[in-house]
Amino acid sequence: MKIIKHSSQTFPTVATGSIVGLDVRGTLEVTNSFPFPVVDVPAESHFEGVPQNAAASAPRAKSNALYQTEMIRMLREVNIDANNVGWYTSSNMGNFVNLNVIENQYHYQKELSERTVTLVHDVSRSSQGTLCLRAFRLSPQFMTAFKENKFTTEQLQKSNFRYQDIFVELPVQIHNSHLLTSYLHQLPASPPSEPLDLPPSLTALNEGRLASSFALTPNFDNLSLSIDPFLEKNCDLLLESIETHHTENNNFQYYQRSLAREQVKIAAWQAKRKAENMSRAQLKQPLLPEDEWQRLFKLPQEPSRLESMLNTRQVEQYSQQIDGFVAATTGKMFAVKGNILPGETQA
């Protein structure tokens, strides 16, 4: 409830915080949470040689760490579970696959414990009436690759690492606290507007089964053919991710063309130097070094494929959501196709 409240109050801004609990026989129990403070960093504050976004995140990370340590100390003083088991973040339509989430979760798994998790609360999807709370952890294979920063094409081919292997999703079970359960049981219920049916027999009453004439009453809301209201927004986000993926591919193709041009120049220089050394050998003159090309030519550096992998993982996330949005509606549209288009004959 704290995570939902914090995420809803700060929406559409991303809400982050720490989660505490216990690790009980292989099950991570999250029993409490508290939000991280908001640190305002002046726009002109930056460090020499450090990108502006990285410089801005440095004081935030330091402030969050100090605040988290102080909060955990206070929780321990009042005898509340104070073991840091991860952190939580909010998202909008599943847009949580980014480098910031990766770096934060990597820090938690590296510095605290490999069992720490990231809880992702999707505010937009939860507003439809179904709570969307998911738990993720970075895979050991990705932890090793991220530590060594090996995201080149050659390394990815050797390790057979795919974008599906970035996250490991864990099952989530939600339990109400005893206080909340007591409150729900004490909520007054409005009396029924229609008289209730009497039980047909004493046996049915003892078993708790009441005969209801409304058991098979059709629910006309299920016949609605309206498309999910978030489908259009999700499609827009999917198109943006596809455009980003196309841009990343263009950048990599540009690198490949630049590398090919330099390799042609190097091959031509080596052939020329080899022929020159053959002439000098015949004249019994000292040979020229053949590895001098490493100083004369500079090969372009291959861009990291991490951003492309994260974007591909985000595209998959959007595609799965769209599939879930239209699954129910598509079946109903096929069911009523004959009534909507009576003149159309089936093949």
Automatic annotation (TrEMBL):
One Gene Ontology MF term: translation initiation factor activity
Keywords, comma-separated and alphabetical: Cytoplasm, Initiation factor, Protein biosynthesis
Database matches in InterPro entries: eIF3h, eIF3h_C, JAMM/MPN+_dom, JAMM_MPN+_peptidase_M67A, MPN
GO biological process: formation of cytoplasmic translation initiation complex
Record keyword Glycosyltransferase present: no
Pfam families recorded: eIF3h_C, JAB
GO cellular component, one term: eukaryotic 48S preinitiation complex
Domain MPN: 1-142
Location of this chain's protein in the cell: Cytoplasm
Superkingdom: Eukaryota
Chain's role: Component of the eukaryotic translation initiation factor 3 (eIF-3) complex, which is involved in protein synthesis of a specialized repertoire of mRNAs and, together with other initiation factors, stimulates binding of mRNA and methionyl-tRNAi to the 40S ribosome. The eIF-3 complex specifically targets and initiates translation of a subset of mRNAs involved in cell proliferation.
Family listed: Belongs to the eIF-3 subunit H family.
Subunit structure: Component of the eukaryotic translation initiation factor 3 (eIF-3) complex.
Protein name: Eukaryotic translation initiation factor 3 subunit H
Organism listed in the record: Polytolypa hystricis (strain UAMH7299)
